[in-house]
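[worker-b] picked up task from shared queue
[worker-b] task type: protein-ligand structure
[worker-b] ligand name resolved to NAP; SMILES cross-checked against name lookup, match
[worker-b] sequence length check passed
[worker-b] input payload:
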Amino acid sequence: MVLVTEENLPRREHVLILLTGATGGLGTLVAERLAGQGDVVLGTRAPERVRVPLPVRPLDFDVPDTLAGAFAGVDVLLLVSAGYGEDDTVIARHGAAVDAAERAGVRHIVYTSLTGDGDHLPYALPHRWTERRLREGSADWTILRNGLYAELLGQLAAPAPDGRLTAPLGRGRLAAVARADLADAAAAVVLAPAAHAGRTYELVGEEALGGEDLARAHGPGVVYESEPLALARERLTASGAAPFQVPMVLGTCSAVAAGFLDRTGGDLRALLGRAPRSAMDVITGLSG
Ligand SMILES: NC(=O)c1ccc[n+]([C@@H]2O[C@H](COP(=O)([O-])OP(=O)(O)OC[C@H]3O[C@@H](n4cnc5c(N)ncnc54)[C@H](OP(=O)(O)O)[C@@H]3O)[C@@H](O)[C@H]2O)c1
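[worker-b] inference finished, payload out:
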């Protein structure tokens, strides 16, 4: 692969966009969409794992000293939430990122948050903290309240080889959204940030899916069995999951089962300018 550096990019009168989380699932998709669209740099803890040929700046929210250099000259920051950790860890990360962006003179921060219907989720608090920090801050902001990924639902409710699809979702459904659509929406916003300043967008899917829907879509012979949360907790704990991951997963399933995450609609279609991808196609592998 040809090594792309900021020095050998043609200079144009563009704003400089930096996106964080560049090696993650969402960040990689956004980077693919921004490639060739102007002055874009990728921020990551792991430059060697970047898969999109754009200039890279190393950064780590856990090491705030890395952020001043990374954000120098940046006009628009796409702050991809770094949500794996206890609340105090995630708040410290996002706080360090916003502080550094403001000090560097970043004009507009776009933040990937969590759907408003996710307030019952164990990881909602750092998102709401970050939203409040942005609203009270000095930079323009846009908040993308992302719904839960179709890819995540597919993992939570995957059929076993014997055809049983076991998950603690009860009869609840999730307005799941394709991660690729969230990437399209984020790219559209960072490329025209002024049109989205001060806006908070609800980006959930247009179809709510539950265990029985998934079993049907996976084909004949697949049967959904709802599992008690206590059993799922035992199974997850025994799998070696990190302590913070257990309530994350269980809380997500519990909120789906209790019917808090099935509201469809929102702003996704308007932001995309087209119909969203089918979440079911993403889960069953028909769409990426
Ligand atoms: N809506 C949903 O269903 C859903 C599901 C899972 C997660 N999320 C949230 O959405 C975010 C993006 O989703 P994803 O699918 O891209 O997750 P992912 O593939 O697990 O990527 C996580 C991202 O967090 C970044 N990160 C972690 N610690 C960081 C740190 N100390 N400093 C800077 N960046 C850090 C990583 O960036 P580098 O390794 O490149 O530095 C990585 O891109 C996640 O981080 C999480 O907060 C949402």
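[worker-b] attaching auto-annotations
[worker-b] Residues 20-27, 44-46, 60-62, 80-83, 93, 112, 146, 148-149, 152 surround NAP (CB under 6 Å).
[worker-b] releasing lock
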